[in-house]
User: Fold Sulfite reductase [NADPH] hemoprotein beta-component from Draconibacterium sediminis.
Amino acid sequence: MSENINWQELSEVEKLKYDSNYLRGTLTESLADPITGAISDGDTQISKFHGIYQQWDRDIDKERKRQKLEPAFSFLIRLRMPGGRFTPGQWLAMDELSEKYANGTLKLTTRQTFQLHGVLKRNLKATIKEMNDHLMDTIAACGDVNRNVMSHANPAQSSFHAEVIETAKNISEHLLPKTGAYHEIWLDKKLVADSKEEVEPLYGNRYLPRKFKIGIVIPPHNDCDVFSQDLGFIAIVENDKIVGYNVAVGGGLGTTFGKPETYPRTGTVIGFCTPDQIIDVAEKVVLVQRDNGNRKDRKQARLKYTIDRMGVEEFVAELTKYLGYELEPEREYVLDRNGDDFGWIKGSDKKWHLTYFVEGGRVLDRGEYKLKTALREISKVIDGDIILTGNQNLIISGVSTKVKNKVDALLKTYGVSPEDISGLRKNSIACVALPTCPLAFAEAERYLPDLVSKIEAILNEHELGKEEIVIRMTGCPNGCGRPYLAEIGLIGKSPGYYNLYLGGSFNGSRLNTLYKQTINEEEILNELRPIIADFAANRKDGEHFGDFVIRNNYVEEIKEGKDFKH
Ligand code: SRM
Ligand code: SF4
Assistant:
């Protein structure tokens, strides 16, 4: 495969991957270099496959330049934890690591895992080692491979939760890179075999053309936005048993302003597979993408573009060849929401489960609000686990009645008892954006809470405070907070300015549509005010905001990603 590659034709990252000796690159040398807080340019790409991104503090960028200093480099570390289930011991370990080596906060991501921000180069290895000591790793949390596999989060809602989370873990394990690079570089494990002989049976030496994402939902709850995944599985329950999964392919949300050939796309359901087939189907979809994805242009490399280029029919025909059998026809299912259901629920396991809202997914102590301390103390007493949801929230899961009372008391002690928040805030997601994200054009996590308060004031004027409306904001069009699937989507264009998108569906199955471009806060509120008033006066019974704005022609429904306008 290697000798005849015309590197001129391929994206630079292809050569980097190929030359990296199965993801080793020069990471060991970069880590040892005391002159700079950064790693080499090439290693910044390779480190992603190990769950690490190089960043710098953008808040103090100008000052560092003025002082002729290099940027304040630090690193983001992302865990791989399929299904997002953590033991209390693991939570405590992450809490401690965030204090010892990171910026003191824990970030719960939109893919059910943790990120640490602000880790200095000299502390990377110790942090990763300690994570591994607690049975947590960061392998393939980023990079051109299959990423963290998401699954339905709430054991209280479905007795099939345990089965689905196990399936997510098995898929994740099956699709892990097989290189020993991670263990050598971070855990000082000796080479088992000569690395030159080592092969990646699944990925080959250039891995995938681009990142790849998988999620599993149990209807009617679409809590991991199954249509945003490269590969989504929808569990089908018949006679009190999961009989299989509908298979959705080609979801993906990232776009680039000024490049109309980039667009968000919702996954296409192409059939049904049995539980025995699910790992094979996952593997073969990955292989079709490996062999057909665009390796020249990374902005056209996701599976969604491969499928639109091939056409769904040809893609399915190719997949069938790889599988050696046909998928069965898709089965019926209904998805009714993509947000989380908050509060305590007693599950069929007779245990208690508390779904708890974490604004922006940021766990920290701020003044009297001591969420980080509360969760630390709760982790010391619970007899269950903590599960992260795909909406940046968490579930204190599987506790007895006695412990439930202790949890409530601890939340109260630390000033973080669950509040009666609005239906809008409950359904809000903001990506990280500034100050850590190098790609952000505008604020998101640090700004959305204030904007929500201002929209709440308008909703309250119309007695719509309880109305559940999905609102999501990102600092750029990459889509990390899945804004293209929100009923109200806000995407950063420049500091203080956003594009406003309306008309996503409450269950996450329909893309929204551009309503207004490059508007500031005052304009956002002025645009939303009359629409909310109209909604209050003229909505049909039970009609959701996203459906209302389409029925009343505020925006036209987008049927295909290709029709999306930026
Ligand atoms: Fe993302 C890149 C944060 C979920 C689409 N994403 C980034 C980087 C690493 C910026 C970078 O490349 O340097 C961001 C780091 C910011 C920081 O300081 O933490 C970043 N993405 C995040 C997280 C932490 C957002 C959050 O607030 O929770 C999410 C981590 C998930 C995880 O645990 O793995 C996160 N990113 C997503 C999602 C949502 C999802 O997967 O459910 C998407 C849209 C779905 C999709 O992939 O299509 C997403 N991130 C992107 C893209 C655009 C990809 C594309 O196809 O165009 C980029 C940029 C890129 O890859 O070039 C990106
Ligand atoms: Fe950064 Fe953009 Fe992702 Fe937000 S959407 S975290 S700004 S890459």
Residues 53, 55, 76, 78, 109-111, 113, 115, 147-148, 213, 228, 252-254, 302, 361, 392, 431-432, 436-439, 478-482 surround siroheme (ligand 1) (CB under 6 Å). Residues 312 and 398 are 42 Å apart (CA to CA).
